[in-house]
Amino acid sequence: MARFTSFQNILPDPNNSIGNAGQNTGSSGAGFKNVSFIGEQPYISSRTNSGRLLARATAAHKWKINITYNPMTREEFQPIYLFLLQRRGPLNPFFVSLPQYRTPQDTSFASYVAETGSKLQVDSSGGYTAGQTTINVDGANSYSISTDSTPKPGDLFTINGTDSNHKKAYLVTRVETPTDYYSGSDDAADAPNADNLRLHFVPPLARAVEDNDDLVFNNPLIKVIRTGNIEQYQLNSDNLYSFSLNLEEVQ
Fold first, then answer.
1. Burial of 180 (0-12, 13-18, 19+ CB in 10 A)
2. b/e for 101-136, b at 16 or more Cβ within 10 A?
3. What is the pTM of this model?
4. What would the mean pLDDT of 65-89 be, rounded to a whole number?
5. Are 137 and 211 members of one domain?
6. Domain span at residue 122?
């Protein structure tokens, strides 16, 4: 008798299988035809009579993901559709792995974070508070910038640390190194040194992070729900299923 300890909680795709009992082995889901990735950050702005701009964010940031599939056979379609039915819309969030962010862009850095025990970690004795858009990081397992390289702007990461509820996904916008870093004003005191990096990212930290919290660059997963209350597909005369879904990040 085969036993398993957890149900599959990642949307089935070619890298994430699901079995008849809901386990994470079995039938692979179909690949995506198209992926739309949208960052939604509501702002309000106004101008004074003198022309001065006043602006602020009015709500938390969230990622929105729209996925469409090529026509699928019943065997390809069912693992995806039934997984979504089981989640019951917004009642049971799940995770999605996006192919464009599954591995970092730099091959040396991608190889480094794929190794067991190799990861970037928050490097600050006091940690960082929610709302920060820049953090210093260093690496575990003998990390070296010269051999293991660095993440690149456009890489996605999540944070696995003391706060187990911190599931927000972040997109790197700048990577400062000991060679290339901004030294103006107060930033000079926090300049990267040795094999330390300073990462800039969007959106701002949703929750506080602590020293040595892990940054996950290898297959970062986005926590989502499917939006809408209608589960719908189309079946054509060739017995092929057409299907798409809209997802929204949740915390």
1. exposed
2. bebbebeebbbbbeeeebbbbbbbeebbeeeeebbb
3. 0.91
4. 93
5. yes
6. 103-216
